[in-house]
Amino acid sequence: MLDYITSYLSSNTTPGQAGNVFWALVYIMIVFGGVSVAVMAMNWLERKALAHFQIRLGPMRVGPHGLLQPIADAIKLLTKEDIVPAEADKFVFWIAPLIILCASFTVYIVIPFGPTHAITDLNIGILFMLGVSSLSVLGVVMAGWASNSHYPLIGALRSSAQMVSYEVAMGMAVVSAILMTSLNKTGTGTLSMIGIVQAQQSQQMWFLFKFFPLGFIAFGIFAIAMVAETNRAPFDLPEAESELTAGFHTEYSGLRWSLFMLGEYAAMIAVSSIAVTLWVGGWMRPFPNWLAGETWDLVFSLIPGFLFLGLALIAFIGVVRMPKHPYFRIQTIGLAGFGAVLALIGLVLFVPPVRDRIQDIFWFVAKVAVFMYLYIWYRATFPRYRFDQLMRVGWKVLLPVGIGVLILTAIMGVLV
Amino acid sequence: MGDQITKDPASFISHLELDQPDKTFLDSNELIINMGPQHPATHGVLRVILKLDGEKVLGTECVIGYLHRGVEKIAEHRTYTMFNPYVDRMDYVAAVSNGLGYCEAVEKLLNVQAPPRANYIRVILTELNRLASHQLWLGTHALDIGAMTPLFYTFRDREEILKIFEKYCGARLTTHAFRIGGCLYETYDGFEQDVKKFIDFAPPKIDEYEELLTTNRIWLERTKGVGKISASDCIALGVTGPVLRASGVKWDLRKAQPYAAYSEFDFEIPIGTSGDTYDRYLVRMEEMRQSLRIIRQAVERIPEGPIMAKVPKVIKPPVGEIYHSIEAPKGELGYFIVSDGSTQPYRIRVRPPSFVNLQALDLMVRGQLVADVIAVIGTLDIVLGEVDR
Fold first, then answer.
1. With contacts defined as CB-CB under 8 Å, which chain B residues touch A154?
2. Dihedrals φ, ψ of A212, to 5°?
3. What is the mean pLDDT of residues B301-330?
4. Closest-CA residue to A170 (of A178, A158, A159, A181)
């Protein structure tokens, strides 16, 4: 058994490519479980970070600093009454959240967390991802239509128009990234997600900085389009709370509503992962070209461990600063335990074999986390666009710029 | 009629002269949507029936009365003194202004003058309340347009004003700060220091709100050219307050017919030019600064002396009628009081600025988009307690 595991771990291919069903299943479970946990963590982080932007404390009651709040929310949502409006189209109403959920989770099949840490590596990976993620618009339209109510209907129409428009601009940005892999003497040209990161590795450069500023602009287009694509502020018109109460999921409650939320957050993480893969070097560590060499490799490989130790330190400072009152005893113990777990993870991350396997995943997740933080930051800062302005930005600004960047990238690729 | 509305909104708005649907667009059906009375952005219990062509607003009909408490009728069964706290419940975010208007109206009827010190205290508290009202407006207006964070900043700073109110009279929101003939309470020890501290505290905070919004591209796009109303339309509809001033009419009752001690202070009336939502925003932001200016002058020059005029224990005004209006944060707040010589008013009629300003909603949003309705409701700065009374 152990031999089997070690022999697999030392191989250089994804379970999907190897046709290894067992390991593929294990990976699927790890990835989907991990994404679900990440969604919960993101939920907590969003509430907490947003609260601190807005001089509030955010969740503080359930667990130390509200760390268990997502679990409490999940229990609340699961035990809530599941209301289906009398006039709703029952079947469509039932299936719509599932479509959104499936669409946003299926994308994870091709996302590479490391050179071999992906469920599979399709040779049309990026195409697959674009296709599958755009299926979620179907779920939105179905939800809005099946609710048989005005607000959801308008929300769904807005949403579908928005998602379809921004997908075009997004596609242009993605194509220029693909061109960057192929139109280079060292590149081979690939649609595979792993291949794209490997191209960046072989060129010793994140595509963000390639053909400066072309990579930057293309990345900017993608970064804007992905916010619009996931219906988040400042493009959160479909669920504009102050206009349409909750947009396409106004009539949903309890578990079904939580499926929408799960799908939305999973989609946010998915598009951020794609942005990281295409532009920010995927699992590559920062500064692959400036700070190259064995020493720097070692320094960067130690960062994950130190980061976790630092987090543990913050938790322990929290324990020390917790009021010495019996009321806070459980919270103090909980926070200390949390800190201990973080410290343990940090120490384990220093062990060389773990360090080497984990650091790819660590850098990937860290980069995605930056994007997730940006999402929260946008939400705290920006007002909401109006529908016509949103369309104008999509079609009249992002799309022409995207086409321009695409053409220039192609020319640069031929010249360089 | 009430039941009929709930059953079929279409029959209710059929009398509106609605524009023809836009034939250049797809020949779509009109959609009738109920916005409110339970809606996050209608500032309480306003119900707006929207007639939409897609996202375009073809017409609106406001249904009000969900917060009707019959304040004017209650007045007929209360003595003049007993009715005083009721007016706080109309525009509950600017309760002090309501009280000032009522007290001054009754004083005018009684032909008494509040002593100068009382007038100064009144000005300080009323201007503080104007600031608090504008802060609440800014927070909710920004929230409606999608910017969440200013709400919390404004509430943080409004808290400082409410603390001063609480220290002065014990209440934070419905203050009942003034009495007929002056003020009941002398200022507490340290009142002036507190107010001065607030005057120094507030301007950087106002700059902070402006930093978030004034030059924000999305904010500009959402507010510029939205909900335009011309000066002549404003006057025809009786719209007053910052909405009127943003359309370029320099009309502020504090200058036009000074009451309390306003004639003694030096301040500007900010006016706008285009009468759109952005101008109204700028006018109100500037008004906050001007309010601080008035408060600074008042607190520096506050005279000593009595705070209550000689008013009989039982208030029994002579037979007659009076109309007195003040510049509340939302516009002209007028009280028309008819006295039959008894201890109770024969009739009190309130001219609430929110109610009158709300009548401009239809004119301002017709032909615009759904999102603009929200922006315009926010920019009109209505309080449903005052609309319905």
1. 31, 33, 52, 55, 370
2. -50, 135
3. 87
4. A178
> Is the CB of residue B388 less than 8 Å from the CB of residue B66?
yes
Instruction: Tell me B94's DSSP state.
Output: G
Ordered DSSP codes for A19-45: T-HHHHHHHHHHHHHHHHHHHHHHHHH
Q: What are the backbone angles phi and psi of residue B137, rounded to the nearest 5°?
A: -60, -45
Counted across chains A and B, CB pairs separated by less than 8 A come out at 88
Of the listed ranges A234-243, B47-56, B67-76, B353-362, the least confidently predicted one is A234-243
Residue showing tokens 């959402």? B222
Q: What's at B378, amino acid-wise?
A: G
Among B159, B156, B161, B102, CA closest to B129? B161
Can you read off the two tokens belonging to residue B61? 């009909």
Contact B144, B379 (CB under 8 A): no
Q: What's the CA gap between A338 and A274, in Å, rounded?
A: 31
Contact at 8 Å (CB) between B307 and B186? yes
Per-residue pLDDT tens digits for B226-261 = 888 888 888 888 898 899 999 888 888 888 888 888
Beta bridge partners of B33: B50
The complex's ipTM works out to 0.79
B206, two tokens: 């106002």
Distance CA A396, CA A243 (A): 25
Residue in this structure with the two tokens 């250049």, named with its chain if needed: B24
User: Can you list the positions of beta strands (E) in B262-330?
Assistant: 320-328
The alpha carbon of residue B238 is apart from the nearest alpha carbon of chain A, in Å, by 28
Q: Which of B261, B272, B271, B267 is nearest to B291 (CA)?
A: B267
Query: From CA B142, how far away is CA B96, in angstroms rounded?
Result: 24
- Which residues of A fall below an 8 Å CB-CB distance to B? 50, 53-56, 150-151, 154, 157-158, 233-234, 236-237, 240-245, 379-389
Angstrom distance (rounded) from CA A116 to CA A120: 9
Q: What are the tokens at B150?
A: 């200013």
**Cα-flanking dihedrals φ and ψ of residue B146, to 5°?**
110, -10
One-character DSSP codes across B337-348: EEE-SSSSEEEE
Q: Identify the three-state secondary structure at position A14.
A: coil
φ and ψ at B337, to 5 degrees? -115, 130
What does the block give as tokens for B255? 């200058």
Pairing of strands B56-63, B47-53: antiparallel
Residue A144 confidence (pLDDT) above 60: yes
What does DSSP assign to residue B200?
H
Task: Measure in Å the smallest separation between the Cα of A110 and chain B Cα atoms.
Answer: 35
Q: Are A221 and A169 in contact (CB under 8 A)?
A: yes
Provide the CB-side half-sphere exposure for A151 (13 A, CA): 19
- Compare all CA atoms of chain B with the CA of A50 and give the residue at the minimum distance: B149
Between chains, do A380 and B55 touch, taking CB under 8 Å as contact?
A: no
Helices (H), B178-224: 191-213, 217-223
Written as one string, the DSSP assignment of B232-288 is HHHHHHT--THHHHHTT----HHHHS--TTGGGS-------SS-SHHHHHHHHHHHH
Q: For chain B, how many residues are written?
A: 389
Q: What confidence tens digit (pLDDT) does each residue in B80-93 have?
A: 888 988 888 888 88
Domains along chain B? Answer: 2-63 (no CATH), 71-388 (1.10.645.10)
Residue holding tokens 């129409």? A157
Pairwise CA distance, residues A317 & A309, whole Å: 12
CB pair distance less than 8 Å for B152 and A56? yes
Please tell me the distance from the alpha carbon of residue A48 to that of residue B202, in angstroms, as a whole number: 27
| Bridge partners of residue B51, in order along the sequence | B32, B59
